[in-house]
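I am still getting used to backbone structure tokens and would like to learn alongside you. To get us started, please write out a protein record for me. Once you have written the record down, we can walk along the chain together.
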Amino acid sequence: MTNTLAVEISHLHVRRGKTSVFDGVDLAIPRGQITGLLGPSGCGKTTLMRSIVGVQRIASGQVTVLGEPGGSRQLRHRVAYGTQGAAVYGDLSVRQNLSYFAALLKAPKGDVDRVIAEVGLGPQAGQLVDSLSGGQSTRVSLAMALIGSPELVVLDEPTVGLDPVLRSELWELFRGLADRGVTLIVSSHVLDEALRCDRLLLMRDGRVIADTTPRALLADTGTTDPEAAFLALIERDRAASGGTRRSRRDARTDGGGVES
């Protein structure tokens, strides 16, 4: 892997029960950019992110992250993962949560104050997490991910359920991190967020149907907004497969769910 890539995936196969989630995914994610992972619920976004951070069992294939095998010990302080559910203690304050996590990571002194300032939680630092608003709780989860100054931050739908103002503020924070050289992978099913990314991976039914940039996406589909572009890509994909490809939702035989 070249030093310009944060993540490189080759021939990734993941199965859940009798269902094939990924059947040979290949992709590369550059360093120092915001890569948006977009697609409808159930398309495989979460499974792909879990594969990158090393918590997903894979059937075969290779996942290389920052030059190391995905999930390896060497990456524990270099990669951060923010899940959809807030991994914080509601009966502790913002500062107590962050201090506990910083101690586990043996983060540098002053890291807690740094991340509290970065995510704009200074006035709420002493409040219990259970007393915070939804947007503030999301900021706590993001602050947890930033402890230790990771090189790669993987965020699973961090803006879900937030109002447009809070979403905009978080994306400004993501842009600031990328400008500092941090690599971000941000999943979303809100397609207008595609325009805030440097690079886009658009997914459908466990496949990457487009690896592009926002400008190239609109130009290639002749559309003016990401939602129309994504719909155009789906129609193109259906036509290319001759209309014979079935949705994974229709093809399930084991009754098990497939992560988004």
